[in-house]
């Protein structure tokens, strides 16, 4: 058994809470590693938190200005020179969903260079094992938080599919703020061999009530989606579920897309306040659809899907009203023009980095660190299906 196979086997046979211990033992024995640490990205994508038994024994490191953060942002291995060796920082990701960084200290740069490719593959295996292990242990979820989540935020984060994903046809990235006190905004996506369905929702209310409303609506949409029905009928069934429970007292806005991965053609249901901006050939413009009623406002609302065409090279940015309607200290709304400038200024960033970058600009406009409402951004980079697929 070669050393990579030994590491892979150790990870696959380790107890869920012992993944780091298992990979550390193999890397020390087979690769001559001096130190091995795993860091998980926190919910706000601001720091990388160490994975260890609580309380943490290492300090968090910045996502924005640290060697580990550089590997996380670029999604490429980064070698840091040390006085007594070299430290490889390896992104830990699963199908484009960026989880964290595996940092491995080796005797010297030559050793780091010789095993960098194998260690990167081990980091990939570790990422998959972490996702599976989260069904049985809270260790990795605890490591993602630099502070305590509100109960509403806990419910919302558990509802999300991830924060990014990647396929040959597209890249997706999303972020919610404030990360540790989310109210009712949400995003959801699901892909098959031929289709991508994407929902962006604006919740109503605050705290637990907002989270309960969003949980009901998202699970109703998922239930309808998994029954294999059209996107318009998904909206209608979710509308009935929300109205049956709240009788019109609470409702939820949603923007729904059903993309054909082969052609880029999409069916769209616009039921409320989330907005779409498209950057095509360097030009940013807002895309509008026929507005329909939010889910649950009235009984037995009928929804009609509209057509939309995505072209290779398009960047689609979806925002909640906590972004486009947020006011400055002088009462000026962030608005379409400011959003367009933010999208232009982040055009060279990958889709997974765009939401956080725009939210940083939004913080500057707002003039205070914490928003009064959820701010949700989803970025979709459309490449289209490669020839021959």
From TrEMBL:
Keyword field: Hydrolase
Classification via Pfam families: SpoIIE (PF07228)
TM helices/strands, residue ranges: none
Coiled coil feature spans: none
UniProt GO molecular function: phosphatase activity
SUPFAM superfamilies registered for this protein in UniProt: PP2C-like
Domain PPM-type phosphatase: 169-382
Gene3D superfamilies reported in the protein's UniProt record: PPM-type phosphatase domain
PANTHER family linked: STAGE II SPORULATION PROTEIN E, STAGE II SPORULATION PROTEIN E-RELATED
Protein name (database record): Magnesium or manganese-dependent protein phosphatase
Source organism: Streptantibioticus cattleyicolor (strain ATCC 35852 / DSM 46488 / JCM 4925 / NBRC 14057 / NRRL 8057)
